[in-house]
Amino acid sequence: MSAEQKKFKFNYIINSAACMACAACELECKDDAIFIDDTVNYAINQDNCKRCGKCFRACPSGAVERVANA
Ligand code: SF4
Ligand code: SF4
Which ligand 1 atom sits closest to the C-alpha of 56? Predict the structure, then answer.
């Protein structure tokens, strides 16, 4: 984890069990942080994510979750 990353107090993650793969989050993200991972699920690259919350607000199924960055 980079030093810059530690300034964020939370992360957004995608709960793949709730995700419908609608791509709304990917379309909203202007920082190229949302990608399809090795298990063919949407995921968030924390290094690119600016914590803007656009994906969180855009998701129709509540699959984007905000979690404390311990
Ligand atoms: S919080 Fe913003 S930057 Fe991070 S993945 Fe969601 S839309 Fe992209
Ligand atoms: S907006 Fe929500 S349901 Fe749609 S692909 Fe993203 S995480 Fe999955």
Answer: 6
